[in-house]
Design brief:
By secondary structure, the protein is of the alpha+beta class. The protein folds into two domains: about 160 residues, no CATH class; about 210 residues, no CATH class. The protein contains 16 helices and eleven strands. The protein has a seven-stranded mixed β-sheet. A hairpin with a 2-residue loop joins strand 4 and strand 5. The longest helix is centred in the last third of the chain and has 26 residues. The chain starts with a strand and ends with a helix.
């Protein structure tokens, strides 16, 4: 099996009679009670959440230290999914369990993280002298990879797992990260809510929809283009993309969207990063909370960036199924910024940066500015 081994103090097969009789899609479920030091080597690679510490882990550690004898009853335990588990009766009620090498904790990563801290676990496998505590463990055995994914997601729904973790586990962002990796791009998209140091995946999806040409949108998306909504509803567009990836309402149209996304991801991210910190915003005469000044430079907020970036959708073209951002010879980003500044000066209704990003009129006016550069 070449996976982790653990000895259960109690081991029961709790598979339902209906599931036991199935020939295909079979799932076996086991309940075991293990000493905590038997559970430290398991991976949590299939979990939609990584262990992230914080107040939850601290609370678990407090229970371990204050009431170790009652830990089994005060903690929700751990759930492991595996393609196979082989057992051997050791006598005295103990059962040795050998797991497949891809066995993974799918619920209870925070508990395992606390147990590792409690036992002083490190890469060498050395432990401190803390006595082990009993932990309830459910083991789900199945060879169905799609079912493993669904079980992983479903087992975390009660904990309000964020969409990025759910869709990340289902592989919704793999194609996009592959594009970045193959291009040696310095950023990588997060695939879990606990990922740190990654580019904001929801932001990347927003940028892709913001750069989508109107004609392409009308041909492949069933509802009208609403660019203020793209700016104001990051969660909505992440959910839309993730759901269409998982259960496409029209597979051909989503494949078109995916092809667009793979072509335009790097131009979209690069444009956003450049515009966010560029000096072409004419700061001397623009006093607004939407542009943050510091000793290290400037940072433009999204209420200005999304109308600016969306205007570039008029420069996006398709050639033999591949999309590109083709800036014309007359392109000058300062002209778009100058137009934005004039709109800002038109009245108090444009002074608030959030309202600025939610105005349909502003997007239309900036499109006209960008179109003139193509002449």
């Amino acid at each position: 099996m070449s996976g982790p081994n653990a000895t259960a103090k109690i081991w029961r097969n709790v598979t339902s009679p209906t599931m036991k009789s199935k020939e295909r899609g079979k799932v076996s479920v086991y309940h075991g009670v293990f000493n905590s030091d038997e559970l430290l080597d398991f991976s949590s690679g299939l979990n939609v959440r990584r262990e992230k510490g914080g107040s939850v882990k601290k609370a678990i550690l407090n229970t371990l230290e204050d009431m170790p004898d009652s830990f089994r009853y005060l903690n929700g335990g751990i759930t492991i999914v595996t393609r196979a588990v082989v057992t051997r009766d050791l006598g005295g009620g103990k059962v040795e369990c050998s797991f497949h090498n891809n066995a993974s904790i799918i619920n209870g990563s925070q508990t395992q993280g606390a147990l590792r801290s409690y036992h002083g676990y490190n890469d060498s496998g050395e432990l401190n002298s803390e006595l082990p505590v009993e932990v309830d463990v459910y083991v789900i055995e199945t060879e169905d990879d799609d079912l493993i994914t669904e079980i992983t997601v479903a087992r975390n729904v009660q904990n309000t797992v964020k969409d990025i973790s759910v869709f990340g586990r289902r592989g919704a962002f793999e194609d996009l990260n592959k594009v970045l990796s193959e291009s040696n791009h310095p950023v990588e998209l997060a695939t879990s809510e606990t990922d740190k140091g990654y580019f904001d995946t929801g932001k990347a999806i927003q940028l892709l929809f913001a750069l989508m040409p109107e004609k392409f949108w009308e041909e492949n998306i069933s509802f009208p283009r609403n660019r203020p909504s793209i700016y104001s509803s990051k969660a909505k567009w992440l959910k839309y993309y993730g759901k269409e990836f998982t259960y496409p309402s029209d597979e051909e149209k989503f494949n078109n969207i995916l092809d667009f996304a793979k072509s335009m991801l790097i131009p979209a991210i690069d444009l956003y990063i450049e515009a966010r910190e560029s000096d072409y915003w004419g700061l001397k005469h623009w006093r607004t909370k939407g542009i943050i000044r510091s000793e290290s430079g400037i940072r433009v907020t999204d209420g200005y960036l999304f109308p600016f970036i969306s205007a570039h959708s008029v420069f996006v073209n398709e050639n033999s199924g591949s999309w590109s951002l083709d800036l014309p010879d007359g392109y000058d980003p300062r002209k778009i910024v100058a137009r934005m500044k004039k709109i800002y000066d038109m009245g108090d209704e444009y002074k608030n940066v959030q309202d600025f990003g939610k105005s349909p009129l502003i997007y239309e006016m900036l499109d006209l500015t960008a179109e003139k550069m193509k002449l």
